[in-house]
């Protein structure tokens, strides 16, 4: 038995504007990753594993939990069939206002606009960014996104509108995300759906009042809309600067038992329940990326003779 859990997180499967990859590469890589987990680890449902740890129960050796953030539609169309075939449980952290189409996924909308715009330059924060090729557009995207993540929702949305006005992309951005019917399908197929806030803000950049609204609204709408119990929140982006001590307190007040971060490492019985560790994995990188994350387990388990 073990007292360690490795929580792994994915976003998309197929390539997107934010997470680019060649056609078919992500699906093949994800299948390879899941097969590796099915053969080399013990994959548990996240909430079950966390409950067992909190109760002092041991976990099987090489215990892993699989999670997904944001609600990309290919989580349902591509990931779910692979998970079902290999009998791997998974938790999907969804955003109610994305499900309802009330908000745009700004990170994908911006990527689409930069890729499809005919402009050859862009003014951003008093600097002119060149857009004369795929590499320069990708560089501009990375620079802008880093800055936008440091802003509140209102500030970021205003900035994105200004960027779109400059870029004048043709047509409409592709719809890459699940709706409420898709979310219900995940539940019907036996997967866990949990909260990723109501509108995907960087919580540490928002007021306590806004954070409370985001967390309570998401939990209420997911429970009412899907007929489920929501006990877990995954903080958007999830790094140490992306949530705060106030966020953790507010999450507890909003009724969450668990909070999932993007801070790498193991989760044990002594890990703060609202600061669960998680390692992010990229499907297009295949088994190589998965093994890089599993290195934590190899190293620790060798020391404890548990692998």
Structure description:
With 307 residues, this protein is of the alpha/beta class. The protein has two domains: 6-100 and 178-304, TIM Barrel, CATH 3.20.20.370; 106-167. The protein has helices spanning 25-40, 46-54, 74-85, 96-99, 106-116, 134-148, 153-167, 180-188, 208-226, 245-253, 286-304, and strands spanning 6-10, 42-43, 63-70, 91-94, 121-124, 127-130, 192-195, 232-234, 258-260, 279-280. Strands 1, 2, 3, 4, 7 and 10 form a six-stranded parallel beta sheet that branches. Helix 3 links the parallel strand 3 (63-70) and strand 4. Helix 1 (25-40) packs parallel to helix 3 (74-85), helix 5 packs antiparallel against helix 6 (134-148) and helix 5 (106-116) packs parallel to helix 7. The radius of gyration is 19 Å and the shape is globular.
Helix residue percentage: 40-55%
Distance separating the two termini: 10 Å
CATH T-level topology of the largest domain: TIM Barrel
Number of domains: 2
From the helix content, strand content and strand pairing, which structural class follows? alpha/beta
What is the CATH-assigned architecture of the largest domain? Alpha-Beta Barrel
Number of strands: 10
CATH superfamily of the largest domain: Glycoside hydrolase/deacetylase
């Amino acid at each position: 038995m073990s007292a360690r859990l490795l929580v792994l997180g994915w976003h998309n499967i197929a390539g997107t504007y934010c997470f680019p990859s060649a056609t078919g590469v992500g699906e093949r890589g994800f299948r390879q990753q899941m097969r590796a987990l099915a053969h080399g680890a013990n994959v548990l449902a996240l909430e079950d594993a966390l409950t067992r740890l909190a109760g002092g129960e041991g976990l099987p050796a090489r215990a892993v939990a699989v999670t997904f953030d944001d609600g990309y539609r290919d989580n349902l169309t591509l990931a779910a069939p692979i998970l079902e075939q290999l009998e791997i449980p998974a938790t999907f952290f969804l955003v109610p206002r994305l499900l309802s189409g009330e908000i745009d996924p700004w990170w994908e909308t911006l990527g689409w606009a930069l890729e499809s715009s005919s402009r050859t330059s862009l003014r951003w924060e008093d600097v002119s960014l060149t857009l004369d090729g795929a590499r320069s557009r990708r560089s501009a995207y990375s620079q802008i996104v880093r800055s936008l993540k440091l802003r509140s929702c209102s500030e970021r949305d205003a900035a994105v509108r200004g960027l779109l006005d400059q870029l004048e992309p043709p047509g409409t951005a592709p719809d890459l995300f699940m709706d409420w019917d898709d979310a219900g399908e995940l539940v019907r197929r036996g997967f866990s759906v949990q909260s990723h806030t109501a509108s995907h803000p960087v919580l540490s950049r928002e007021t306590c009042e806004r954070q409370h609204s985001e967390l309570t609204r998401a939990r209420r709408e997911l429970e009412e809309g899907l007929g489920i119990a929501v006990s877990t929140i995954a903080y958007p982006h999830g790094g140490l600067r992306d949530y705060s001590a106030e966020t953790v307190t507010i999450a507890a007040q909003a009724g969450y038992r668990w909070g999932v971060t993007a801070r790498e490492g193991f989760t044990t019985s002594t890990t703060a329940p609202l600061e669960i560790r998680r390692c992010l994995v990229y499907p297009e990188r295949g088994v190589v990326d998965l093994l890089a994350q599993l290195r934590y387990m190899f190293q620790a388990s060798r020391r404890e003779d548990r692998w």
